[in-house]
Fold these 3 entries.
Entry 1:
Amino acid sequence: MLATIQKLLLVLPFATVTVFAADLPGDPVEGEEIYMDVCEECHQVDGTGENGATAGDFVNDKKILSQSDEELLLTIFDGKGDPIDGMPSMKDELSDKEMKDVLSYIRQTFGS
């Protein structure tokens, strides 16, 4: 049993993660429209945020999408960093459902 766990720990960091619709908190199809309307200006169409220069880089900074849905939804809700130069809060812009939808789009599009 211990040997099996040790083997899994060696393999898991290199495993490709596929996000299935059942694993997503919202609707990624709806989330795409929201992303393009609200998030794309800073995070860019390709999700890199100009390599982190304008916003979080979902593609190359793996620690961002390694956070739980709850942590990411809290960031979307509250914003992050300086209110002017950081990510603004979306609590007055997006409904709870819309926040879950955009998170699902981000996870599905940039998460694997």
Entry 2:
Amino acid sequence: MRHCSGKVLLLEDNPVIALDTEALLLEIGAEGVVVADNVEQALRFIDETQFDLAVLDINLGGQTSTEVADKLVERGVPFLFITGYDKTENLVQLYPSVVIVVKPYDYSILSQAIKKTISQSN
């Protein structure tokens, strides 16, 4: 089932998870996936490309993706967070309607999260 269309920004610093998630996004229907592995790269891609959706890993080594999320909010691009951590209370306060997916996830979980994210943005 295709829940995703258009160009997707994927911010993920783990290469294996990035490859798996990119494949899932393409399977769900993304027309293209641009993968960034750090905040600076993601911000540059946002300046260069119009995205229809973004999937952001919260914790990127010593960084978090909140700066990227803020820029996506400014641009009106829907996004969701993915994380390997349980503590997400501060994200819920900063981004009350954001969907948060906990790793590990599969096709079904990611597909439902994208569907919910897109429906909330319309």
Entry 3:
Amino acid sequence: MSKKSKLIIFTGPSGVGKGTILEKFFDIAKKNNNKVVYSISSTTRQPRAGEINGKHYFFISKEEFEKKINENAFLEWALYNGNYYGTSKEFTDKCLNNDTSVILEIELQGALNVMKKYPDAPSIFIMPPSFEELEKRLRGRNTEDEETILKRLNTAKTEIENSNKFKYRIVNNGIDEAVEELYQIFIRETK
């Protein structure tokens, strides 16, 4: 890993706006010719409406995922809400060795695991303005049943309790402000 390429750990509870923040961040990064890519995770969960295999996630079977675990092919992996999620070692190493930073959007367990392996990696936690607002956003997506929403809210409590373990915390009071804060952190960390 060069001094200018960084592995950037990015997490926060489901429904906090991580995907929207990153989408706008990458627009700004591209416009400014920053060398940074999004790490596409593998998962065993089913795609949501509009998600594209190879763009949002690599959707693979449980058997294929477990084979990759046994081959030690993941930088990190975790079981989250009944599904596996993992980050490819090969992809990450290739980018970092080519002076390109990699943003890992991963859940808390994976983030903490990567932070142990890469203690110098900048770590960023996206916070909701309030727990009530987070619940409103989750319910407003209309993508999951009540049981799943309650599971996600319960998980979010634990995630927020662990947010102090991250170098940076960004409160998503508004997308544009959160994106600008993320971009400034990126610039500072990759100088």
